[in-house]
Design a protein that fits this description.
The structure is a homodimer. The first copy, chain A, is of the alpha+beta class. Chain A has nine helices and four strands, in the order βαβαββααααααα. In chain A, 62% of the residues lie in helices and 7% in strands.
Chain lengths: 250, 250
């Protein structure tokens, strides 16, 4: 029976799992759980993952959620997966686990909170929290600095000095790609100064071609929609301020 | 060469690692990194862990931080560790990884943010953020509900229906113990309704005797200090309000 992957390509951990399956030739079926239609909250999906989050997998009778746990499981359960994704070596594996744990409270936390409180909240009909966004920006900026000064130190082009990517590269880079939906000036301010991070994103993208671009296509379409929306809001604000400036002249 | 564990017993992940070493008879040396004296920020400690956080270990030439990664490493690297802590079975191991990942963005996030913005901030000379505390309380309460309705479902007394504890039980229970430093009425409001969680904490404590109590002794002393401090503040507030009420009568 084929592996089932429940995912929404607009979610960064979903993309990481999908790219991993594709590049390792894992035979799987993708089931879209449309977050914008709140399908993750449906009773059917909660049977798969009671926490109502994507991604989740079903492998025969075995159900699993949390993307890092899924990536580790897939790397260990499917014999065709190359060792560099999650090395059998105890020490290298421990270091990858360390990056993945660090990700949760640093890059992931900063990125998810910043995107929510800038771009996503209005789209979801929620109130933005500017203080939360400001704090998240600090966490995000500090995370990039740490990636540059620590995790990307070493011989190779990948995390922990790897010559080839691991599941940690995939998970963290998919997280960073989520920043594509931001206003360009926000994205440039936070990511721009971190050239080494940008190069590593590019390297990971190239190492996982053509699946990386395929799985991110939907994100780039979302980016365009958000850009158009911002433009329309700016124009309507312009008109409003023109009108109010006219009003003040009257 | 003995394993070196860098820890402060007032930190919940430090205690999880120390209890794990003790109960599994791992020969180790504990190096105290006193967080209240900001020793984690010293150049010496940053040589061990550039992220300046406890716990961290040094095993021969190998350095590692992030408590979940450390627990997994120790369970795999030391042959005397019983299988139930981190089973070799792929499926059970994957489920434990899933709990540990979930912990980061749920229980850990709620607990750390709530304790910081109620008890710790004043002690550290920082400003409390009541909005952050209120949001953290929601996350914490929801996390307990999830532990009861999902993670503690099953035959055994431990997470995932285990008959004996795993590293996930140890990590999550040490996190919950941190709530001991809270004002009793806060702790009872959040933890009180979750009887199953409280029983599981008790079961984990009993399964890791006497090391659990030994490693938590310092937390109970901190609890007493915080209680005294609150009492003094309440008294001085009482005096202030008496004085001001006297003043208003004058």
């Amino acid at each position: 029976m084929k592996l089932k992957v429940y995912a929404d390509r607009l979610s960064q951990p979903s993309r990481a799992v999908l790219i991993f399956c594709k590049i390792n030739g894992i035979d799987f079926e993708e089931f879209k759980v449309d977050l914008s239609k709140r399908q993750h909250l449906s009773p059917e999906f909660k049977e798969i993952n009671p926490m109502a989050q994507v991604p989740a997998i079903v492998d025969g009778r075995f159900k699993l959620f949390e993307s890092h746990a899924i990536l580790i499981y897939l790397a260990c359960a499917f014999p065709g997966v190359a060792d560099h994704w999650y090395p059998a070596d105890l020490f290298r594996r421990a270091k990858i686990n360390s990056v993945l744990d660090w990700h949760h409270s640093n890059l992931r936390r900063g990125s998810a909170t910043f995107v929510l409180n800038t771009v996503l909240a209005p789209a979801l009909g929620l109130q933005k929290n500017p203080q939360a966004a400001a704090e998240a920006e600090k966490i995000l900026y500090a995370s990039f600095a740490r990636i540059e000064s620590f995790w990307l130190q070493g011989k190779g082009r990948f995390l922990l000095g790897g010559l080839q990517p691991s599941i940690a590269d995939l998970s963290l880079v998919c997280e960073i790609m989520q920043l594509e939906v931001l206003d360009e000036k926000d994205r440039n301010r936070i990511l721009g100064p971190h050239k080494k991070v940008m190069q590593w994103v590019e390297d990971t993208k190239n190492a996982t071609k053509p699946h990386f671009d395929e799985m991110h296509a939907v994100l780039f379409r979302a980016k365009e929609r958000f850009q158009k929306q911002r433009l329309m809001e700016a124009n309507s604000d312009g008109e409003t301020s023109q009108k109010s400036s006219l009003r003040s002249k009257m």
